[in-house]
Design goal:
By secondary structure, the chain is α/β, with parallel strands linked by helices. The chain has 13 helices and 15 strands. The chain folds into two domains: 2-167, VC0802-like (2-Layer Sandwich), CATH 3.30.2130; 179-387, Rossmann fold, CATH 3.40.50. The strands form two sheets. Strands 1, 2, 3, 4, 5, 6, 7, 8 and 9 form a nine-stranded mixed β-sheet that branches. It has a six-stranded mixed β-sheet with strand order 14-13-10-11-12-15, with helices on both faces. Bound molecules: adenosine-5'-triphosphate (ATP) and magnesium ion.
Length: 388
């Protein structure tokens, strides 16, 4: 027996003339997600008036298929469906068959007609099928909070019928919004920030600054593992590993210690922007949340951002740390982020980092450094790691 899935999307249906572009990307992403779990299966994916229908030639493991579809951005809900001819008798028969294996006391039938030529309107289909279920199983109709709902979607010749609609992640298909460069540290925040950028259709590349050999190699592996988990949502990823120890040394030796963190950040931004411009990337993403730590006051965020002209997106700006950690659990980065990590910024940590930096003073202190030469050298030393 063949197997089908129906996926519904919402927002991308609202995009006017761009709709086709969004749908095409969503279909591509669905194909990649399913190919990952079923590399050898043939599948057909059709875009049929506001729903995407995937058909496999044989019955497959529903848990695997659902685990792939539940993480594809753009899908609002989906379900494993039977495809039957658009005939009321077939609908009745299949509906009873679907309910047969279910434990339920109350139920609802929800029919939708994409084909307005079908002789019965939706409410008539609902009551025809509903009365059959009542008759056969002696159960009650409950339209507001049923135990089980049977969805019947009538297209031209075919009808899709399914129960157990599953919730998708929503958002927009990865890639429709263009590329961003995520500053990925080993902590909890930046991977979650990347997830939210992807959720709004951004394709993420990652840059990580490390101080090897002064920090451990394991910290770099940790960041690679994080990028590997995030790859699940966008299928292939690129991680730029940027050696930062030499620049850090310059900052430590030549500038007042209270400005260290701000200066590291300013260098990270400059290098990230330079790389982004080379790669046609249109924005930078960080895991900052307002007021979370000293470097994330409005003043310090402003002083750091002043180094770049590309937009800097901060998807976590309004989230509490506990909310971010909960989300890290949901997306699968939590257990990696929690591992010990020696971060560039905790090296030579000043005892009293400035909380509200003044730009003029920071710029004055930076005069001791050959900024252009440092940025240029760090850029040259970036290593590229392809993930997935
Ligand atoms: P995270 O949990 O992401 O490490 P954090 O709460 O530790 O964040 P900071 O360390 O102040 O916050 O970093 C703020 C943001 O700066 C990070 O979310 C990340 O986007 C970026 N960042 C910090 N350190 C690095 C690094 N070594 N490499 C790349 N980006 C970094
Ligand atoms: Mg950090």
């Amino acid at each position: 027996m063949s197997q089908a899935y129906i996926c519904h999307y919402s927002e991308i249906g609202l995009k006017g003339k761009n709709r086709h572009f969004f749908e095409k990307q969503l279909i591509q992403n669905i194909r990649k997600a399913l190919k990952r779990v079923f590399p050898d299966e043939r599948m057909q994916i059709l875009n049929l008036s506001k729903r995407i229908v995937i058909t496999f030639e044989r019955e497959l493991d529903d848990t695997l298929a659902s685990s792939a579809l539940k993480d594809v951005f753009g899908i609002v809900n989906f379900g494993a469906a039977r495809i039957i001819p658009s005939k009321i008798e077939e609908m009745e028969h299949t509906c009873l068959d679907l309910f047969k294996n279910k434990q339920f006391e109350t139920f609802a039938i929800r029919a939708k007609r994409a084909d307005k030529n079908f002789p019965l309107i939706s409410t008539e289909i609902n009551s025809r099928l509903g009365s059959k279920v009542v008759e056969r199983f002696s159960k009650k109709v409950n339209l507001s909070n049923p135990d089980v709902t049977c969805h019947v979607e009538v297209d031209n010749e075919q009808t899709y019928i399914f129960i157990d609609k599953k919730k998708g992640v929503g958002g927009l298909p990865v890639e429709v919004s263009g590329k961003v460069l995520v500053l990925l540290s080993g902590g909890f925040d930046s991977p979650v920030a990347a997830y939210y950028a992807m959720k709004r259709g951004a394709y993420c590349e990652f840059i990580h600054f490390h101080s090897y050999p002064y920090t451990q190699k394991a910290s770099q592996d940790k960041v690679k593992d994080l990028a590997g988990v995030l790859n699940k949502y966008q299928f292939k990823s690129r991680l730029y590993m940027a050696p930062f120890a030499e620049t850090q040394k310059d900052v430590v030796f030549k500038c007042p210690d209270k400005y260290r963190i701000i200066m590291y950040r300013r260098f990270m931004m400059r290098i990230a922007e330079r790389l982004a411009l080379q790669k046609g990337i249109k924005a930078i993403v960080t895991g900052e949340s307002l007021g979370q730590v000293a470097s994330q006051t409005l003043e310090n965020i402003g002083v750091v951002e002043e180094t770049v002209t590309l937009p800097v997106l901060r998807p976590l700006i309004g989230m509490d740390k506990s909310e971010i950690i909960d989300m890290a659990r949901v997306i699968g980065t939590h257990d990696i982020s929690k591992l010990p990590h020696d971060d560039v910024c905790t090296r030579f940590m000043p005892r009293h980092p400035v909380i509200r930096a003044e730009l003029t003073k920071v710029k004055e202190a930076e005069k001791e450094l050959d900024i252009e030469a440092l940025v240029e050298r760090d850029l040259q030393e970036i290593e590229v790691v392809d993930v997935g």
